[in-house]
Amino acid sequence: MRMLNSILERKPQKITIDRLLITPDEENPQLITNQEDIERITIDHYQNVASSNNPALFTSYDNLTPFWQHIYKEKYKSPEHQSILTTTITLDELTTTIQSLPNNKAPGPTGITYEFWKHFSKPQYKLLLTFFNNILNTGFIPSAWKEALLYPIPKPEFWNYQLDKTRPIILLETLRKIFVKIITDRLNKFLSSTNALQPNNQAGIAGSSTAEIILTIQTCIDIQITQNQKFYIMVQDLSKAYDRINLDLLILAINVIIGNHLTNSFDLLNGVIQGEVISPILWVLYYDPLFEAINQTTYGGINLQAIHLMNIYDHQNDTSTHFLQKNCKLLGYLDDTTWLNSSISHLEEHLNIADEFYNFSNIKINKTKCHLLTNDQDCINKGSVEINFGPIHINVNVIGKTDNLRILGAYFNAFNNHNKLYKKLLTTTNHLIHMIKKKKITEDMIIYVINKVILPRLEYMTQHIVVPSHINNRINIILRSAFKTISGLPKNFYTAAIHTPITPNIIDFHDLQIRAKMANFYTASFNPITSDCIKILLLLSQNKFWYPRSPINIIQTFRNH
């Protein structure tokens, strides 16, 4: 890690709070240098950084509307599934968890590291086992576990002695994190085995990743363009999502999915700790009722559908025709939320439901930071479109015809015009290589940086598209040039020798693309979240080219001959 930080010029983020600049009003900023005042202001800031001035709209289940009471009604789960969460922690479970912990991580208030617990013998593990099971059975949390170290670090911009331009890093006690990780693994197993969460809200659950959302969005764009249908894809910005969680509502959301089988929550004023391993799953549970409410609506969204004709001569009267469809209204990965619709009016109806949920759940939306990706030429020409988001009218910025919308690190264009993305790939490659060439590194180091840092980054950015061969070639030329320079090879050295698998080599980006696309296709085909997208795409291809059977079988036939 130190090698990569040095090569890529990643400087550790550190600040010293020896003065503060506060702005009661923009015209009269004040510089605070008194240490007691600095400490008081700093503590007050981080205690209330995400607090809301509005009174909490949710206080109990009874003050929800009938619509939301139905959503928050507890679902039945079999005792067999619920026992996953409450059974006694075993020695194997504890040992596996401790051995899986990473090294060289910052400790909590006591200074005890993960490495300390890894050197415990199995007889000593039994003491921890008794301790953990006592917590699990009684629900009493050690008071020391409620303490943590808070380190402020600056945001990407210069912080200028303003606390608003910093974010806190929380260092928790390592023993607490081990216990919580065991509970998190159990909760993850429970959620994945029971399908308790909505299929479009699976972040942090075993087997899920950003790839499902990226594939679904690109599939919607491809099919809508092919069928000459309009689409509207809107992304929104959540402000300090974890910090604003209403703990009473979180408990209600947990009871909906799990039932009343967990110990009491930690005694927090508001929100969940972002440094806690269980926090992402708690957020997914908290956010899931919105996805259920939207999924239950019978209108709107983008309909992906395909027909498998059994009788091409009389397909209108053929009752054996196979019809496959998938409706996409809302996709979420933690606090990244993407709305999909085929009309503005239906999008507004869904946003009205969302606004009601955000209000009583204390989730703050930066409505002015919403962006819209659409192939509606009228909206593109205007540059912005007025949308009703609950009772408020907002002007949403419309992404230009040749511009990209960044979602989860991938770049989408409403007309599949990826020229700007190709330029970004080349710019990113040149920038990283420029930093590398200034360093005194070995041949093995350059191979590692190219294969493990640069190429994976480029592949992630392009996982939803096929990069043209001329762009692949330009990227390979840049990488090979850097490799030859650092390795002391002549400029006319054989290209095949550089990419040969026999000796340590740099990977050919074109070959990586082929392998990655095949792996992604295979994974998506067997993933219950994305398998329908793959089936629909295959059926549409079969109908377009009048294949007698699936394109996969056609390819296999050619291979066999």
UniProtKB/TrEMBL annotation:
Signal peptide: none annotated. InterPro entries: DNA/RNA_pol_sf, RT_dom. Residues 134-396 form the Reverse transcriptase domain. SUPFAM superfamilies: DNA/RNA polymerases. It comes from the Eukaryota. This is Reverse transcriptase domain-containing protein. It comes from Rhizophagus clarus.
